[in-house]
């Protein structure tokens, strides 16, 4: 009966809710008698430590309860291994709750015990916990020290699960320091191992962390893709902490995109999770985000309540990052209310903490609020200095190195997944060969054994031959399948090569086309700083500078939209829209530019003409074709634009009477290596616009073609469906 009751209590411990589990633990300890206490307690202690480890991600309070029970029982019977593991689990919860002094004491004692027991895995776990704790309180040098100690110990141990967690921890340190490129290195190292070994929970955490890096670089569409991958992997698991973090991250992206109601929905979901877990770090961070969302909706009383509560929590538990984040949030709040003196005080304190953190994102936010507050106080020179600091920090966050590295890692990850699939098929092929060999040996054995009955032997022989033919047929099919997959891989590698060439081309274009307007701006600012020009001269120069910036902005919008359209996750939205309204709006946008060359527009666009495609894609195509027509038209020419419906399609034509193109130039159109040609007034270009146009039209289920003759002009025609198929 006693054995049955003990087993029943153990079942409750591993399957019941928090309250019944804790009660069952106490009952089990009382039940054990002095004679069998030593044997039973070591088993119970190990199970308590396992429970504590398993429940840390979902219910930290239960994890702490089990760890404390384990520590108490281990000390009573002098069970060192159980004591060290209990101290480690208890320290996890302590630093998670902001009790860093208690966590340090427990980790030091655990490390000493693990060293005495020569337990390498235990030492690594303690160093990893130290790394997480020091990252949380912004002591990054100590965090790196302990995590690197763990990495060095694990080299000989060769535990890939531990290695993945350590890479994640190192990535967290560099992310917190604002070194996004290094953070990506470690996150992707961990992700490659996690995917290879099917570590679903770790893969979800790492996708979330990579999304956070992309979020800091303001590459929001890609960040959302990574967060959704993380949600798919972690939904329905016990990793409640990660689910709260992902919901908060998505809320922050929606906040940055001015979708305040959507942001509040996700942030409230995260708030429920962190409140359930009593997660002080998460609670403080979410409260600041909610405050910023309500401030954007002009609900300043609620915003102030959330951010002030966040600051109190962060200060109480010494969470440096959250203190800086909340202070900058309060500065933002008071700047919006034009209370610049208060805003300046909070911004200054947040800026000082951001220097200690070394985090570029927090530094940039603090610099921006300092600039706004100082401008409001009339200190324009100081405001200008902080504005320049903000611009420089934002440029560092959006560094080409980090963006290229993320793209490169994604290509490598895709290739690795394809390579793993090929290996799996090769393994299946080898298994089929082994089956064939085994069946052949079976035929020989049966033939030798059943020598007495010729008819039976012949029957068996023909039966086995038939099976052998079936196996050969299957093998041939598998061989064909493997060859097809090899061909597909070669084609994908070729496509990757082409994408790489295109990437180099795009980077070269960016470097060339951005340098001129930036140099112009830089020169203008130097002239302003040195008082080399008068106010009137500056006003005279501004139109030319703004024209260059408008061109650069339009080019970047087009380029970024097209680059996003190349991602697998890009979602083309096909919907009905007014073609006449879109075309006429674009004509109005470029009428002033055309008039500078004396160029007029002749339009024949059917009223109320609608089509079904992605409006943003078609707008970019029309814009490119109109600007090309203006660029290559002579002074006092006309540009003819028509749009009509015919046979279920909308046909749009844009015709100029400019310099035209030769057959050789026509053959190069819509190619990735097209060279730009100067316009009739030496207007510059990138040579990439028509490539973008062709790609966007085809994604909208349309077609584009061109007719041109030198000296006569050029006519572009594209079609898009009236309705979805």
UniProtKB/TrEMBL annotation:
Signal peptide range in chain numbering: 1-18
Record keywords, A-Z: Kinase, Membrane, Phosphoprotein, Signal, TPR repeat, Transferase, Transmembrane, Transmembrane helix, Two-component regulatory system
InterPro entries cross-referenced by the UniProt entry: HATPase_C_sf, HATPase_dom, His_kinase_dom, HisK_dim/P_dom, HisK_dim/P_sf, Sensor_HK_Regulatory, Sig_transdc_His_kin-like_C, TPR-like_helical_dom_sf
Known catalytic reactions: ATP + protein L-histidine = ADP + protein N-phospho-L-histidine
UniProt xrefs under SMART domains: HATPase_c (SM00387), HisKA (SM00388), TPR (SM00028)
PROSITE patterns: HIS_KIN (PS50109), TPR (PS50005)
CDD domains: HATPase (cd00075), HisKA (cd00082)
Residue span, Histidine kinase domain: 509-724
TPR repeats: 124-157, 164-197
EC number: 2.7.13.3
Entry-linked SUPFAM superfamilies: ATPase domain of HSP90 chaperone/DNA topoisomerase II/histidine kinase, Homodimeric domain of signal transducing histidine kinase, TPR-like
GO molecular function, one term: phosphorelay sensor kinase activity
Membrane-crossing residue ranges in chain numbering: 442-462
PANTHER family: SENSOR HISTIDINE KINASE YXDK, TWO-COMPONENT HISTIDINE KINASE
Name of the protein in its database record: histidine kinase
Organism expressing this protein natively: Mucilaginibacter agri
